[in-house]
C-alpha cells in the first residue's frame, strides 16, 4: 500500500470513527467502514453477542491497486468493543467459519472477539478471473494488514493472530512483514519450507515419528499393500470408477502414490498402529484400510479444485514435501517422483518459478526480531520436521506435544504443558 493510500485510509477511518462514535450498532459501524461491500447477519455462537459475514474489497495487487479488486470474506463474532481480538488467518477457504458452532479455542481462553479471514483466491474470496501472479505471500499479508487497520478503529484493544497449518504459515508471513499489526501470534502446526519437495519430512517419518516398533508397523503395512497390488488393483479401479475420479496419470501410478502418501497421512492425523491389518488379513481389509488412510480423491482432478490455489502457492513460494521410493524399490511402478506436484496437480504446460525468499525472511525474523509468538506442534506430525525454529530467541516460545499430531491444540496438551502455555499468553496479554 502506497504512503498516499495509507494516509487517505487513515483520514477516512478517523472521520468514520468521529461520525459513528456514539453508535453501538455493530452492523451500522461495519457498513460505515471504507471498502465494505456487504454485511450479512448470521446465527452466532452463544459465546458471542452477534456475528456478521462481511465482504471486504481488496486490491488484487497491493502495490498496484489500479489492477482491480476482489471481495474477501471476513466473519466477525463480537464479544465487546473493549475486548481483545483474535484474528484467524485461514490458509484456505473459510466456509466452516460460517457455522455458528465454530469457535476458535483462544477466544474463550482469553475472552476475545473473533475475526476470521478467508485466504485470497479460496472459497468466496475470489476475483471474477484469477491471475496467479497476484497470489503471493506478500499480497496475502497485505490483505490481513488492511483488515487489521480497518477493524482496529472499532476494536482498539490488543490483537492476537492465529491460524492452523497453512493458516499458521500465513500468521508467520503476516507477522514478519507487518510486525506491529498484532501483539501476540499463535501459529499451530505451521511449517516453514525451503524447497518444493522437502526431504526432512521423509526422514522424520522413517526415524522420529512414534516409536521404532510403530514406524516398522507402518512401513510393513505399506510393503504389504504393494505386494498385494495385483489383487487390489481391480478393487482400486472399481472404487475410482464408482467415485468418478479422474487423474493426470494412470491409476496404477496413483495406487503407488497412495502408498507413498500413506505414511505421511498416518502420522499427520495420529492414527493408532493397533488398527493396522495383520499380515494374515484378507485383501479387502487391506484395501479398505488404504482408502481410509489415503483415499485417491487426494489426487482426483475435480476433488482438487478447491485446494488447487494451494499447490500454486507451494510451487511459487510455500514449498511442500517430497516422497522417497527407495525403501520400496522393486515393489512399485514408480522409481522417481521428482516433479510430482506439477505432474499430478497441475494442468499440462504449467510452470512456476520457486522463490524461497519469504520463508528465509520468516527464519531471519524469528531468529532475532520476533517476540510474543507461541509456536505449537505435534511430536508425531510430519509437518514438525519443517517446524519454525526459535534459533534461541527467548522472546518467543515453541511447544511440542509429545505424541501429538496435526490436530495438536492447547486443549489437547497435558496439564503441565497447557498451564505453561496459558501462563505465557496471559503474561503477554496483560
Shape: globular
Determine the structural class based on helices, strands and strand pairing: alpha/beta
Which strand order spans the largest sheet, edge to edge or round the barrel? 1-2-3-5-4-6-7
Helix content: 25-40%
Name the CATH class of the largest domain: Alpha Beta
N-to-C series of helices and strands: HHEEEEHEHEHEHHHHHHHHEEH
Radius of gyration: 23 Å
Q: Profile the largest sheet.
A: 7 strands, mixed
Name of the CATH homologous superfamily of the largest domain:
Alpha/Beta hydrolase fold, catalytic domain
**Named CATH architecture of the largest domain:** 3-Layer(aba) Sandwich
Secondary structure: number of strands: 9
Distance between the termini: 31 Å
Low-confidence stretches: 18-22
Number of domains: 2
CATH topology of the largest domain: Rossmann fold
Mean pLDDT: 95
Count of runs of 4 or more consecutive helical residues: 14
Q: Please, what is the oligomeric state?
A: single chain
Strand content: 5-15%
Explain the layout of strands and helices:
Layout: H1 3-19, H2 26-31, E1 36-42, E2 50-59, E3 69-78, E4 85-89, H3 106-110, E5 113-117, H4 137-151, E6 159-164, H5 166-177, E7 184-188, H6 200-207, H7 212-227, H8 229-243, H9 251-268, H10 283-293, H11 308-318, H12 340-345, H13 357-368, E8 374-378, E9 397-401, H14 415-429
Parallel strand pairs: 4-5, 4-6, 6-7, 8-9
Antiparallel strand pairs: 1-2, 2-3, 3-5
What does this structure look like?
- The radius of gyration is 23 Å and the shape is globular.
- It has two domains: 3-194 and 356-429, Alpha/Beta hydrolase fold, catalytic domain (Rossmann fold, 3-Layer(aba) Sandwich), CATH 3.40.50; 200-345, no CATH class.
- It has helices at 3-19, 26-31, 106-110, 137-151, 166-177, 200-207, 212-227, 229-243, 251-268, 283-293, 308-318, 340-345, 357-368, 415-429; strands at residues 36-42, 50-59, 69-78, 85-89, 113-117, 159-164, 184-188, 374-378, 397-401.
- β1 and β2 (50-59) form a beta hairpin.
- It has 430 residues and is of the alpha/beta class.
- α4 (137-151) packs across α5 (166-177) and α8 (229-243) crosses α10 (283-293).
Amino acid at each position: 500500500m502506497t504512503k498516499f493510500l495509507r494516509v487517505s485510509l487513515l483520514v477516512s477511518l478517523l472521520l468514520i470513527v468521529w461520525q459513528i462514535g456514539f453508535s453501538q450498532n455493530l452492523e451500522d459501524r461495519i457498513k460505515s467502514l471504507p471498502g465494505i461491500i456487504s454485511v450479512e447477519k448470521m446465527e452466532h455462537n452463544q459465546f458471542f453477542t452477534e456475528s456478521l459475514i462481511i465482504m471486504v474489497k481488496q486490491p488484487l495487487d497491493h502495490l498496484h491497486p489500479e489492477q482491480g479488486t476482489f471481495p474477501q470474506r471476513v466473519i466477525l463474532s463480537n464479544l465487546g468493543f473493549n475486548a481483545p481480538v483474535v484474528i484467524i488467518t485461514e490458509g484456505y477457504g473459510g466456509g466452516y467459519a460460517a457455522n455458528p458452532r465454530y469457535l476458535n479455542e483462544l477466544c474463550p481462553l482469553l475472552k476475545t472477539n473473533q475475526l476470521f479471514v478467508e485466504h485470497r483466491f479460496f472459497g468466496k474470496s475470489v476475483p471474477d478471473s484469477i491471475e496467479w501472479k497476484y497470489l503471493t505471500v506478500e499480497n496475502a499479508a497485505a490483505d490481513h494488514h488492511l483488515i487489521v487497520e480497518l477493524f482496529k478503529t472499532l476494536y482498539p484493544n490488543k490483537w492476537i493472530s492465529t491460524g492452523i497449518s497453512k493458516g499458521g504459515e500465513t500468521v508467520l508471513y503476516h507477522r514478519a512483514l507487518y510486525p506491529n499489526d498484532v501483539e501476540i501470534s499463535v501459529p499451530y502446526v505451521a511449517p516453514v519450507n525451503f524447497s518444493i519437495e522437502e526431504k526432512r519430512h521423509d526422514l522424520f517419518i522413517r526415524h522420529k515419528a512414534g516409536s521404532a516398533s510403530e514406524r516398522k508397523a507402518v512401513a510393513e503395512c505399506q510393503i504389504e499393500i504393494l505386494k498385494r497390488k495385483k489383487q487390489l488393483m481391480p478393487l482400486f479401479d472399481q472404487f475410482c470408477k464408482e467415485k468418478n475420479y479422474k487423474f493426470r496419470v494412470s491409476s496404477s501410478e496413483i495406487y503407488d502414490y497412495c502408498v507413498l502418501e500413506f505414511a505421511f497421512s498416518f502420522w499427520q492425523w495420529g492414527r493408532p498402529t493397533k488398527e493396522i491389518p495383520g499380515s494374515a488379513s484378507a485383501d479387502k481389509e487391506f484395501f479398505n484400510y488404504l482408502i481410509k488412510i489415503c483415499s485417491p480423491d487426494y489426487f482426483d482432478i475435480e476433488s482438487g479444485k478447491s485446494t488447487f490455489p494451494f499447490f500454486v502457492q507451494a510451487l511459487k513460494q510455500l514449498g511442500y514435501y517430497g516422497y522417497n521410493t527407495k525403501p520400496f524399490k522393486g515393489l512399485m511402478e514408480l522409481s522417481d517422483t521428482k516433479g510430482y506436484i506439477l505432474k499430478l496437480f497441475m494442468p499440462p504446460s504449467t510452470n512456476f518459478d520457486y522463490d524461497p525468499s519469504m520463508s528465509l525472511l520468516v527464519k531471519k525474523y524469528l531468529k532475532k526480531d520476533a517476540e510474543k509468538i507461541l509456536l505449537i506442534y505435534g511430536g508425531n506430525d510430519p509437518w514438525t520436521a519443517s517446524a519454525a525454529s526459535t534459533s534461541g530467541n527467548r522472546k518467543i516460545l515453541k511447544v511440542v506435544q509429545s505424541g501429538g499430531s496435526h490436530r495438536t491444540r492447547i486443549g489437547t496438551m497435558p496439564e503441565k504443558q497447557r498451564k505453561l502455555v496459558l501462563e505465557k499468553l496471559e503474561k503477554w496479554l496483560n
